[in-house]
Write a structure and sequence with these properties.
The protein is an alpha+beta fold and 162 residues long. It contains three helices and ten strands, in the order ααβββββββββαβ. The strands form two sheets. A seven-stranded mixed sheet has the order 5-6-7-9-8-4-10, covered by helices on one side. Strands 1-2-3 form a three-stranded antiparallel sheet, with no helix packed on it.
Length: 162
Amino acid sequence: MKVATLLAVTVCAAILGSSWGALPGKAMALAGWMYLLVVLPPLAVAIALLFVVRGYELHADRLEVRRLLWSTRVPLDGLERAWHDPRAMDRSMRLLGNSGLFSISGLFQGRELGRYRAFVTHPRQAVVLRAGRRTVVISPADPQAFLDALARRDPSMARGKP
């Protein structure tokens, strides 16, 4: 994901740089279209940066996904099962969200998991949380330690892939 982010930011900067240099000498109609090339790349990067996943905080009743300026609350009521699966997101399709600019987050659909929400920075460290029909995928720095903390929170929760 670091490579994808670096590549995307570099491409956006290149588009911005080449568009900015072309603006003054063009006709008014073309200049209007070119202004989009000046505005859209930095806007896309800024929006993706706002939704970056900076970490996770486990509370008694919820998981908080720390973003750049806020936290997203994920309720843990009814949590039935959790497991580490480095291939959880393989062959998943993004329905709504970001697939790699600073993080992988949003709504996804996969064959094994069905529809799920993702708040991921390292797909190979994926931990799947299942509560009824809700499925969430996160990527804590230490998946095993996170699962141990979940088990201490709720000893009745099942561990391991269903």
